[in-house]
């Protein structure tokens, strides 16, 4: 294969170097460890004020979805499920209830990581370069009944 | 196909390959086996004739049907085998003979149990799943994994023992061990079998082994474990206990209670273990309803769950592999360095949350629809609560805390290519299964065509599945729940992720029971010698007293207090004995 010319084409006119470079660049993280694909797919999540935008978009979408119930007659077998806004309100209430219960349950049930005396690091076979592997060295069991 | 191959249970192919893998030291050759064996087994299954005893034997006068395919076990074993291929791909980066062998053997035992044609054959492979899977936990080689593996093995073997015990009763009362469904739970044998199945399905209060062991297994191990044991139990329940009303309440409870634990759990693989509980709950509930459409829903949801739950477990495995942790409090912002894993995790999250055009939407809805049709209002509300709950912990929490949220600053490599490939296939399946039938047999219709009651499934597909009403109500539930998340985050009402363990009911034996036994041991250590000393003191005194009375130098020999009276007493005793003898004879 001949060397590509300045416009990135080889003798047969195919884009060789540039395409290869593009593909390569798309899969090579930058020096600060950021994957180029993440910018393309999730770059929008770094925008300033994105949290506000998501909040208002979801609020409007929720209101639209709820208002659909005024125009559609549903045929649920269970009577209460036919009430206007039932699914949306039930979803909202259940989700919030589960999350709010997290506060008292967390206080009641959360204990120190070594509560049962077996806290340790990650399992065998993880990437040797894993940054968190030494976070808490894994005590290896040495014999039966080792406590 | 040669007759011998045609009558070979596909699970056995995996079991044989699993044993062989233990001895193949050449890494690539072994890995070729781990992928080729399930592919061969898939071929055997697909071309196997249905509703015929393909392999039988007789042991001690008991006829065992080792291989029989029908519409119910076909779909379960098909999912098991496809998952085995994906697991083989997912494990390609590692070089662990025991893990590779155990994973294949375990998958094979689950397939062989599913394709068994009688309860005794089911029992044999039921036990083999327990014994082989424990190595996937042990291979983590941590102290926590070792003890969890021992507890896991104990519980799993207990399930097997209860099953065998139940079989003995059933064989006596029924005269055979066929797969004819049970109806009466008051029969003790049937109850034993029900509890044995319940342990593997992780019924409430019998569930702790799952959350205890799965998160402590190896990266590959927890992916493999998430597929088989619980779904094998769902199959067994669907086979032997369809329409058993107790299962409706048990299943609904299973969907609800893990939601509360998953909200506060910090270990994301443990969150997914609670999520297994939650999804299996939907299936158990469907078995309890027992109508053809509900059983369709059970089989379809099990099929879809194997891939989306496997996918979520794989994505968390990839995070653990690259970062060394899956604790939500230590993660965040990983989409910057693992964008592919992020995309696949989001697909898994949307699938499990039952977004329209994703797999659970076309499977779970059959169960919920049948619950509503049967008029179980409270159960319906519980299942809708659980649907919002699963969105919370698997749909939002898993991807949000691992890949978005607060940036942990961790910059790692993207997951290895083999992991991405396995995740990609699972993600593709999760989307494909949820698609409308653009042409006959496409998307969800492919899955519906494999279900035990095909006509009912197709009827549901044509009249309800993609109706405007169904899609809009599902979006109302999900979008309003997501809005709740955003709102709670905005007002700082969402509990922060904190390090720590969350106590579950296994506290009763891991802490209370263990402490009680330790205390009893300490007490015995002190009380034992004291009791021994008291005993010997007492017996020593008794000996001295007896010797003082009866020895040749004793009181009696010398006449003593009984002097003169001895002959009279002897005669009196003899008289009484004679009198009693005469009365007895007379």
Q: Which features does this protein show?
A:
heterodimer; A: 147 residues; mainly alpha; 2 domains; 4 helices; 41% helix; disordered C terminus; B: 586 residues; two-stranded antiparallel sheet; 3 strands; globular
Structure commentary:
The complex is a heterodimer of chains A (147) and B (586). Chain A contains 4 helices and 1 strand, in the order ααααβ. Chain A has 2 domains: 1-46, no CATH class; 47-111, no CATH class. Mean pLDDT of chain A is 82; it is low at 142-147. The longest helix of chain A has 24 residues, at 86-109. Chain A is 41% helix and 1% strand. Chain A has 147 residues and is mainly α. With 586 residues, chain B is mainly alpha-helical. Chain B folds into 2 domains: 1-241, no CATH class; 242-502, no CATH class. Chain B has helices at 3-6, 10-21, 27-46, 71-90, 97-114, 119-138, 143-174, 188-201, 208-213, 219-225, 229-240, 246-264, 268-289, 292-323, 339-352, 359-373, 377-403, 417-432, 444-448, 454-465, 468-490, 507-550, 565-585; strands spanning 53-59, 62-68, 501-502. Chain B has a two-stranded antiparallel sheet. In chain B, helix 7 (143-174) packs antiparallel against helix 8 (188-201). The longest helix of chain B is centred in the C-terminal third of the chain and has 44 residues, at 507-550. The termini of chain B are far apart. The mean pLDDT of chain B is 94. At the A-B interface, helix 2, helix 3, helix 4 and strand 1 of A face helix 7, helix 10, helix 12, helix 14 and helix 15 of B.
Largest interface: A-B, 78 and 90 residues
Number of helices of chain B: 23
**pLDDT averaged residue by residue of chain A:** 82
Number of strands of chain B: 3
* Main β-sheet, spatial strand arrangement of chain B: 1-2
By secondary-structure content and strand pairing, the structural class of chain B works out as mainly alpha
* Poorly predicted spans of chain A: 142-147
Order of helices and strands of chain B: HHHEEHHHHHHHHHHHHHHHHHHEHH
Q: Report the biggest beta sheet of chain A as strand number plus sense, adding barrel if it closes.
A: none
